[in-house]
Amino acid sequence: MAAAGQAGAGPAEDYIAARDKAVAALVAAEKAGTSPEVLEKRDAADRKALEQKMRALIGPLRMKGFTATFSPGTLLEGNIDSGGPDGLLFAHEDSSTYLLVSPEPVFANWLAARAKGEGAAPALSRGIAAATASDDFYTLAIGSEAAFSRYMDLPVTAAEGETVRAAIGLFSQDLPANTLPESVVVTRVANGRVAVGTSAVELGITALPACDKAWKAADAKTQALRTAAEKSKNQDDPRWAQANSAEVDASLAFRACFAKEAAGKPFLAAAVKRAEALLANARSN
Fold first, then answer.
1. By CB count within 10 A, which of 32, 62, 150, 241 is most buried?
2. CA quadruple 77, 82, 86, 88: dihedral sign
3. What pTM does this model have?
4. How far apart are CA 95 and CA 117, in angstroms?
5. Measured distance CA(84)–CA(195) in Å, rounded
6. Rounded-to-integer distance, Cα 147 and Cα 169, Å
């Protein structure tokens, strides 16, 4: 992902300051014993005011079939909807496609905060372009309650003045085993905006026999270790941890096989086409 031009701050800095002030006030109110009902009303009012600022920052965006809502879903810290990027989340009417659009300085500020979190991927602290190489980036930006697992990057074409990256993968709450990917993700940086999106993709296949074979061979080690650990009846048996590592290895083996088998296949072209369509939506203005 090539580097984009530097976006100016200015009004974006004012937005960040207003957001931080609102969050701090809510934290103080909660500590002071304010009732949940009152906190929710204050949160709604604060987000409405921030949404007006956000829409002015982003400017007009026209995406047919999409409805925009303000992100994050709440400013109340600790809530599941509080950690998302600040921006406008465009959802398609068929619920298959989502696109988060944010001013570049505001998004960079959010990313820097996420990079300081416990266990954060090192790539998150290296800027937007580097962060897109991390699965955690898409988990945090648009994953909601599911984690993103990348199967392979997709070869998409950048227009003049923009930087783009795309991948195909799976959003899930469990570690992918030999499950085929179901989503494409894209990131676009241009004109002072960052757009991060995901769209469901139909590959038209039900299995990749060669990859199932690779996964089963690797998964056999996982099952053997778990069986041995269970028989020991020892919660501290090191084979529990070894089994978890083997499970990750099996998942990675399937994904690596998928990337190899996908070359030249029609389903790869379909995934690239879907990603390009999502980028076309991101270019709307």
1. 150
2. negative
3. 0.90
4. 30
5. 13
6. 10
Decide: residue 65, CB within 10 A, 0-12 exposed, 13-18 middle, 19+ buried: exposed
Asked if residue 160 lies in contact with residue 130, where contact means CB atoms within 8 angstroms, the answer is no
Instruction: Give the pLDDT confidence of 93-149 residue by residue, as tens digits.
Output: 888 999 999 999 999 999 999 999 999 999 999 999 999 999 999 999 998 789 999
Can you give the length of the chain in residues? Answer: 285
In this structure, which long-range contacts are made by residues 131-134, counting pairs with CB atoms below 8 Å and at least 24 apart in sequence?
132/1, 132/165, 132/187, 133/1, 133/165
Task: Specify the pLDDT at position 1.
Answer: 54
Cβ-based burial of 126 (10 A; exposed 0-12, middle 13-18, buried ≥19): middle
The distance from CA 153 to its chain's CA centroid, rounded to whole angstroms, is 14
- Phi then psi dihedrals of residue 93, to 5 deg: -65, -20
CA torsion, ordered 81, 85, 88, 90, to nearest 10 deg: -70
Q: How far apart are CA 244 and CA 228, in angstroms?
A: 13
Contact 68, 153 (CB under 8 A): no
Q: Cα dist. 125→7, 70, 115, 151, 188 in Å?
A: 18, 25, 5, 23, 18
Neighbours of 171 (CB within 10 A): 21
For 16, the token pair is 């960040």
What is the gyration radius of the CA atoms in the chain, in angstroms?
A: 21
